[in-house]
Prior knowledge:
The protein is an all-alpha fold. The protein has a domain at about 70-110. Helix content is about 85%, strand content about 0%. It is flat. The chain starts with a helix and ends with a helix.
Amino acid sequence: MFPAIVVFCCIGIYSVNNAPVDVILAGVFGLVGYWLVKHDFEPAPLLLGMVLGPLMEENLRRALLISRGDASVFVTRPLSACLLAVAAGLLVLAVLPSLRRKRDEVFVESES
């Protein structure tokens, strides 16, 4: 079943632009995806980043144009400052367990 799926995917990819480079590029991205799965990367945040990244970049550019290039508008306005603080707090909460694990490993190794 898997080989048939791969063949049909390659035919579909090739039929869009009639370019063999597209099939090779799909294969390369498939290998990258396989590597990411093997190294326990979560696909949902990567997909969200790919989908929402351009939209966020466009709105950041728009906000900077409105503020005439002054980036301090993000910390002086209450709503954006609160959202930045929440994002920083969530980032710290996400990184904290891995830092504690590394610290605990160092202390366990030094005791023996």
